[in-house]
């Protein structure tokens, strides 16, 4: 049985400017320094404009905190106004990039095809994608959350080879639970995260599926994280609102201490 190191990643969305980012990462580093937290990987996904400041801090102080971007262009360079490329992110030593967050799908028309191209772009430049999938309320009410989410997974991974996929992170984020305070029950999270692992085993191999980290996201807080993490197929969380509060985020990272 493979042991998967939990990954707690804070998706800051469009919050915190570069000065606030520095203060926030310093707080996290300070709060996490008194104990050896190798058992949990910690990452932040700040807005693009903060990345250079975060990199300087993490590099300069040799912090264990990892960081990444919230999006990546499918293209490596060229006339794509406003876009940020894989080479730019890898130059900033980003470990991760979120791909296909539901807010990108909803407000920026990102299809599975676009997400697939972005997953490939991330791998071209040595960045680990956090591929976000998850159903909306209508789909959940119709009881089709598993098939809907698996079809997003299939689309996002189309043509991506096993040697890349074994390092991917999948974030299951039911849209109805994002920023609503409505958290999926641990059983709801396990149902879909388990199905995602099952599909990875079908598409690739059981061995690969056992290596992939699957996160839950949607109204995660210090008070509900332990029950979610107790599920066998949940290997971490993608945290929005609660990640903006350094103390609360640290409590989530230390879910085992509760
Ligand atoms: O979208 C999310 C993380 O990517 C979840 O956001 P909240 O934690 O604010 O519900």
TrEMBL record:
It comes from the Bacteria. SUPFAM superfamilies: Triosephosphate isomerase (TIM). It is found in: Cytoplasm. Its main location: cytoplasm. The active site is at residues 101, 173. Pathway: Carbohydrate biosynthesis; gluconeogenesis; Carbohydrate degradation; glycolysis; D-glyceraldehyde 3-phosphate from glycerone phosphate: step 1/1. Its EC number is 5.3.1.1. One of its GO terms (molecular function) is triose-phosphate isomerase activity. It catalyses: D-glyceraldehyde 3-phosphate = dihydroxyacetone phosphate. It is an enzyme of class 5 (isomerase). The keyword Cytoplasm applies. PANTHER family: TRIOSEPHOSPHATE ISOMERASE (PTHR21139). Belongs to the triosephosphate isomerase family. This is Triosephosphate isomerase. It comes from Streptomyces virginiae.
